């Protein structure tokens, strides 16, 4: 009753036509309508995800990732993955420091260009990062433009996917900087993320990458295929912040499609209580 009385007092006018003493003000209609609209959007988004999960034959609806951290975690080279002079070079890492039950999906190369995969990922609202090699991407630059238009970050995986430690510094720089140029020319952005082919690198690799504007060199802790997973860690488990690798491949290589791979990936992470987050939000 006191709260009601105070509210009424704050809204009343005195006998001279002025306002009464300041007090708690009633909620105005516009904020209330905005709140209702936001709640409606959330319900609609959830309904759409439920329908998409059913349409794409998932066992469960994928979990929604928490908001990105206001303060980004400090990214350092994984122990044992450093090179001489690492402090000033892009770190090679396999996971992001976090206690949240999230993982990051990354997809390499660019061989398979399945339109249904783009629809599936858009409808399910699953974020991922694409590490591209020009010798495969150039077959259809437009496919990856559609991917970019859906909010996917296009990152660097060299021009020709060579074994980089077998090349000179100058040759490595041409492979990495050349792919930087391709992505900037075709897609308007110069990447800050680079993944060395096969996960192999040396000090020259990271020096060349830095000279081309690369800030991070994420590799992976797990790899997912159309019908199974491979693990880096001895416990063969997913951990908070793990980076998961897969490839743009199809039935010729896997005996399954990109869509089969997505189901394999999402069914496992969802069953274990993990959501898929956007890697760039944590860097």
Automatic annotation (TrEMBL):
<protein>
    <submittedName>
        <fullName>Polysaccharide deacetylase family protein</fullName>
    </submittedName>
</protein>
<feature type="region of interest" description="Disordered">
    <location>
        <begin position="1"/>
        <end position="30"/>
    </location>
</feature>
<dbReference type="Pfam" id="PF01522">
    <property type="entry name" value="Polysacc_deac_1"/>
</dbReference>
<dbReference type="InterPro" id="IPR050248">
    <property type="entry name" value="Polysacc_deacetylase_ArnD"/>
</dbReference>
<dbReference type="InterPro" id="IPR002509">
    <property type="entry name" value="NODB_dom"/>
</dbReference>
<dbReference type="InterPro" id="IPR011330">
    <property type="entry name" value="Glyco_hydro/deAcase_b/a-brl"/>
</dbReference>
<feature type="domain" description="NodB homology">
    <location>
        <begin position="101"/>
        <end position="283"/>
    </location>
</feature>
């Amino acid at each position: 009753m006191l709260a009601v009385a105070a509210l009424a007092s704050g809204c009343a006018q005195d006998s001279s036509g002025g306002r009464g003493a300041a007090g708690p003000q009633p909620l105005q209609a516009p904020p209330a309508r905005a709140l209702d609209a936001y709640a409606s959007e959330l319900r609609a988004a959830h309904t759409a995800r439920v329908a998409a999960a059913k349409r794409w034959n998932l066992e469960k609806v994928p979990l929604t990732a928490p908001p990105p951290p206001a303060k980004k975690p400090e990214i350092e080279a994984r122990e044992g993955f450093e090179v001489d002079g690492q402090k000033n070079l892009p770190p090679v890492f396999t996971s992001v420091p976090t206690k949240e039950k999230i993982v990051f999906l990354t997809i390499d190369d660019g061989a398979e260009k399945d339109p249904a995969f783009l629809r599936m990922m858009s409808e399910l609202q699953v974020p991922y990062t694409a590490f591209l090699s020009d010798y495969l991407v150039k077959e259809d630059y437009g496919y990856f433009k559609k991917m970019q238009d859906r909010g996917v970050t296009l990152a660097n995986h060299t021009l020709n996917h060579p074994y980089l430690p077998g090349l000179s510094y100058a040759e490595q720089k041409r492979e990495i900087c050349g792919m930087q140029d391709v992505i900037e020319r075709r897609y308007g952005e110069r990447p800050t993320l680079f993944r060395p082919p096969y996960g192999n690198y040396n000090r020259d690799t990271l020096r060349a990458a830095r000279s081309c504007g690369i800030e991070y060199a994420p590799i992976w802790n797990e790899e997912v295929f159309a019908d199974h997973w491979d693990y880096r860690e001895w416990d063969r488990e997913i951990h908070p912040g793990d980076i998961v690798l897969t490839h743009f491949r199809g039935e010729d290589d896997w005996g399954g499609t990109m869509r089969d791979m997505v189901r394999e990936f999402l069914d496992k992470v969802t069953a274990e209580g993990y959501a898929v987050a956007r890697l760039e939000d944590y860097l």
